[in-house]
Amino acid sequence: MSQNPGPPAGAPTPPRYRGRLAPSPTGYLHLGHARTFWTAHERARQNGGVLILRNEDLDRTRCRPEFVAAMIEDLRWFGLDWQEGPDCGGPFGPYHQSERINSYRATLEHLRAGNRIYPCTCSRKDIQAAVSAPHGDDEPVYPGTCRGRTVPPAGGTQYSWRFRVPEGQGIEFHDQHLGPQRFVAGRDFGDFVVWRPDDVPAYQLACVADDAAMGITEVVRGADLLVSTARQLLLYRALKLPPPAFFHCDLLADETGRRLAKRHDSLSLRTLRQRGETPSLLRQLQIAGSFAK
Ligand SMILES: [Zn+2]
After folding, report:
1. pLDDT of residue 128
2. How far, in whole angstroms, is CA 285 from its chain's centroid?
3. Burial of 283 (0-12, 13-18, 19+ CB in 10 A)
4. Whole-number Å distance between alpha carbons of 7 and 67
């Protein structure tokens, strides 16, 4: 019997772990973000990998430049470090999404050429009116109103591009933290927007284009994005790109059980720091799943 032979000669070595922090500069970071980012940081460190900071600043109406500087300062204060990012550069830049529009347009064109998307003129109101079933946190399942449309409307009518999902198909993946996941296209989520009416790439498209282009091997993010992962796996498939692994973190809730959001000012890293809390104490609290009230 031979000893553990190791990988055969010439076998491809697995790519080095590449993770990312991908905050949006729409407000101050709070403890919920910090916990997810800390997990991402620890995953990269434990795997001897690289961590990337990506500034998700596509939403021109909500992102503000002063939050970018604050975000970087707060993340550093919390004890996070990264090897590539808008402040330190790297081989996969630019690391501001607002500077990557050409890459998103190429991805959109790829989907359009493959007949995976269609122009949709429905407003949020139209969709809510057409959908009677209740929908929790997530967007309602698109009723398919514009599915037959092949060319954009003429005359300056606003429209989005929507991805056509394979109705009834199960999308399965193994989450590195939460285990096996399964969503059914057309039931758990419908045709989704990949390009917005205000000519901005939607989250799903930008995220997939960037994670693929930046060689990300594992995505660490909050469990509120599990359904988005199912959508994104369809994009990877349509684009013939290998998907990364996914690790979805449990979400922090406040004392009333509501999910933490940027509206919780008292739990922003900034406020906690001004109150004299230390990063090491905050890390202990959040690892224990509790936090200062
Ligand atoms: Zn429509």
Report:
1. 78
2. 25
3. middle
4. 47
pLDDT band at 263 (very low <50, low <70, confident <90, very high): low
Contact 190, 141 (CB under 8 A): yes
What pLDDT was estimated at residue 292?
A: 38
Question: Could you tell me how many helices (H) and strands (E) the chain has, helices first?
Answer: 8, 9
The amino acid at residue 148 is G
pLDDT by residue (tens digit) across 54-113? Answer: 999 999 888 888 899 999 999 999 999 999 999 999 999 999 999 999 999 999 999 999
Instruction: Work out the average pLDDT over 175-184.
Output: 97
- CB environment 7-36: b (16+ within 10 A), e (fewer): eeeeeeeeeebbbbbbbbbebbbbbbbbbb
**CA 107 / ligand 1 centre spacing (Å):** 21
User: Structure pTM?
Assistant: 0.89
Rounded distance between C-alpha atoms, residue 117 and residue 175, angstroms: 27
Our answer to whether residue 262 is catalytic in this structure is yes
Model pLDDT for residues 233-248, shown as the tens digit of each residue:
999 999 999 999 999 9
Bridge-based pairing state of the strands 160-163 and 192-195: antiparallel
Q: Which of 94, 91, 95 is nearest to 72 (CA)?
A: 95
> Two tokens at 104?
């998103």
| Ligand 1 centroid distance, CA of 38 (Å) | 39
Q: Which of 125, 240, 262, 293 is catalytic?
A: 262
Distance 192 CA to ligand 1 centre (A): 10
Q: 121 C-alpha vs ligand 1 centroid, how far in Å?
A: 5
